[in-house]
Structures are given as structure tokens and as C-alpha cells.
Predict the structure.
Amino acid sequence: MPEDVFVKVVLKPGKEQSVRRLHPWIFSGAIRKIHGNPAEGEVVEVFSADSEFLAMGHYQIGSIAVRIFSFQQVKPDTDFWNDKISKAFAVRQSLQLAGNENTTVYRLVHGEGDGMPGLIVDYYNGLVVMQTHSIGMFLIRDQLAAAISKLYGPALKSIYDKSENTLPFKANTGAKNGFISGDLARVEVQENGYRFLIDVTTGQKTGFFIDQRDNRQLLKHYAAGKEVLNMFCYTGGFSVYALGGGAARVDSVDSSEQAMELTRQNVEANDMNNGRHNAITADAFGYLSDIKDTYDLIVLDPPAFAKHQDALNNALQAYKRMNAKAIEQIRSGGIIFTFSCSQVVSRENFRKAVFAAAANTGRHVRILHQLTQPPDHPVSIYHPEGEYLKGLVLQVE
Ligand code: SAH
């Protein structure tokens, strides 16, 4: 059999440094020459200016030209991808997520953090949602789905591909969301023993914000007897935990009527209402302007305010304004869980925005916890960009 021949991408002198440090991206500006004309998503080999082999990855037109999946010369065949998926699974097993009866929802593959840039795979109690963010991963989705099926065996009922809105639209992939196997769209999952009903076909992201699991658990420990505001509640994750932790009252707020419906459903599914829960459809900024001394515990978990670098300043201003409203009006001794999931907002910038918000109010504010994403959303130490979720737990005197 003839050996596979891959297009060679040669870097400018010196640009091999970051690849040698195992950073998984090659920016287009680092490339001196491409030998051939690779199609988007094609596998390419990356060489230094001195013709030394560096890495293999998926090619794509755009600022990130190559997303590296191996720093060795390999055959990216079925065995290769099976092995990658199995390794990711082994990590989730060691975290006691895979096979855990109380938590049946977790992230199986977290892109760069699992050595698979461009691929997100979430497990929802027998249903898997794949989301490709690169053309290369999109093109091999059947191979990836086969690896996932092999891993779970008959326990896996469906695989849903939700890549329609995560691929660059200019690439014209024609990607449509749909089932690769099975047709199970709605599932009930458990997270730390709480029940959530999830529809992966309609929900945001892959259906549920799995990344807040540990932070919700922490919130639960602060909730007893408290009057709680869960702003940007979406599926009501934080609300369910707050009620579970014995909150006196929880007001869940989101601007989306659909989100409020999901929250109501999930509160019901856990049999927790007892008149303690209020579902309120409202805009955050309007709602937050009139909450003086109403709450002891406030959760602020907004959508990414900045998706791109050029929106950074506006995003930081928005974080500042929003946090200022909460810090200013929360009851004395109150606790605020505040988050940013914008990848372009660094931990330091987020903290500065919250600092500026606090300083404006003049109240005494302590940081009790500094939060991040859970270990099934791992960050490659060579790719700090992968750390996107930042949170602070504040105590306001
Ligand atoms: N905290 C949630 C995830 C939040 S996702 C969880 O743990 O699952 C962000 C949510 O913010 C979405 O549900 C979206 O509908 C809502 N949202 C976006 N803009 C808003 C606004 N201006 N006011 C209120 N809610 C908003």
C-alpha cells in the first residue's frame, strides 16, 4: 500500500519555537510556504525552516491555519482516533465522572485540553453531542462517531452532531445539525444527584452548561436560609442547587422565555418548588437596577460578552457595570458568585473589572473563592487560552 502523502507546511525561521513548546496552533503569519494546495480540513505536516518535522494537524483558511493533533509523524487512521478518544475517556474515569450514577453528564472531549483541537464531545446519559469547531474535525466526524460508539457500546443510544453554528460559515461546509446515529433528543440526566431535563437539539451550547458543575455544588453550601437571585439562569442549574441547599427563596431570571420554561421544568423535576421559586423573564440590566437589599446571594453568569478581541473593552465595561449593580445593592454580608466565560477576557482583566466595580461602590469586598472550569474541561498547560471560565465568590460587608 502506498504511504499517505501529506501536504507540507513550512514555517518561517524562528516560528517553530511555539510548536516545540507544544502549543497546538499555527498562525497563518508563521507560515513561509505551503507545498501544494491543501483543501480546508486536510491533514498537513508542519516543518521548521530547517526542514525538521514538527507536527501534524488540520489545515484551515483563517488566522489559525493549522490545528495540531500530533507532535509525532503518525497515521491519523481509525486506530489513532480510537486511541485519542479512549485516553480522554480514561481521564473522565479517573475523575469518577464516567460510570457515576449521581452524575450522568460530563464532557468527554475538550478540544486542545484533550489533544483534539476543534472537537467538543459531551456525554448526556446515553446520548452524545459532538460539536466540531474546525473543518478538519467536521470532515472526520463519522470516524470520530465510530470511535465514540465503540467506546460506549450498546449503552450509547444516540450521537447528535451540533456543528451547524460552530464552523466558519465562509467554508461553506453545508453542515446541518442532525443525528449521526439514533434519534434520542431529550434526556434526563443527573448532576450530583439533581435531575435535569435536556433537549440537545434546541438548547444552547450542547444543551447544558456542564462547566458549572463544581461551582453549583459550592453555591449549595452557601444557600441555606438565603434569598437568592440566579441571574442568567438558563436551565436553572444554580437555582436547583440553591433550593437543594435550603434557600429560603430563589428568583431565577433570564431574558429568554424558553430558558424560563426549562428552569421551571427542572425545579419541578427535583420536587423543590414549595412556593420558594420564582421564574422571572426579564432583561438583566433592567432587573438589576432595582434590587436594593433584596438578596443575600446573587449569581451572575452572563453569556460571553466578548467573542472576539475587538469587543474586549466593551465587554469589560459591561462586566464592570453589572457587578457594580450587584455589589452596590446586595444585603450586608451578602455573597456574589460572578463569572465570565469569554475566552478573550483573561482572569486578570476580569478581576480588574470586578475590582473597579467594587471600588465604585466603596463597600468592603473580600474574595472568598477564585473559580474556574471543572477537570472534565481540562486546559493544556501549553495552551493557556483554553482556560475560559473565570469566577469569583465575593463577600460584601
Ligand atoms: N447560568 C447558566 C448559564 C447561563 S447562559 C447555567 O448555569 O446553566 C447565559 C444565559 O443568559 C442565557 O440563558 C441567555 O438567555 C441569558 N441572557 C442573555 N442576555 C441576557 C440579558 N440581557 N438579560 C437576561 N438574560 C440574558
